[in-house]
Every structure is written in C-alpha cells, then in structure tokens.
Amino acid sequence: MGNEVTMSEALIVTAVSMLVVFLVLILISYIIGLLKTFASGKKPAAVQPENTSAAVIKQEEKAPSTPELDEGELIAVIAAAVAASLGRDIPEIRINSIRRVPQLTTPWREMGKQEQLLSKL
To answer: Which residues contact 43 (CB under 8 A, 6 or more apart)?
Structure first.
C-alpha cells in the first residue's frame, strides 16, 4: 500500500526532529543572552577595561554609608515590640541586654516552614 514506514525511516525522522529542537533551543538561549546585554546597557565582559583597581575604588566611593542608629531609639522600638507581643505595658517589662542572634536561615524560609506546618493542622 505504500504507507508503511520502516524502522530505519522512523529513526531518521526522530534524529532529525531532535536535532532541530536542540538547535532551536540553543538559538533561543543566545537570543536571551543578547537581550540581557542590550537591556542592561552594559558592555559585555570581554570589552571591559583590564584596570580593575580603578573600578573597585569607584565602587567603594559609590557605596552608601550606613546611617548611624540611635541606640536609645532602637532600644525603645525593641521594648515596644516585646511589650506588644506579650500584651503588657512598657513599664511592666525590664530589658537587661539586647544582642544580635546569628541567623541560620532566611526569614522567608522560616515563614514557609511555619505556613506548611500550620496548613497541615
């Protein structure tokens, strides 16, 4: 009848189809890379000058300085937050010391864990 496809013809069609798909994917990745360089407005890394010490100095000059925090104001804010979470007035609580606790995970991750646990209850 002439409509039969042999195994070798099917393999050839499969190989050519896979080749076309991968070539198109590679082309798309290059187009995305070009769009990123045009969108950022920066020159590609190969065109940038070799003198990196001047670039480091410029970045250090542009770095914003952290504003000085008033420790009394910070203590007042922390005391208000503790009093609000305990449901008491500020004069009823006594804060002996305040120290930063090192954070092992991000707050977003902790909230995600809490939401997952609470959704299972």
So the answer is: 37
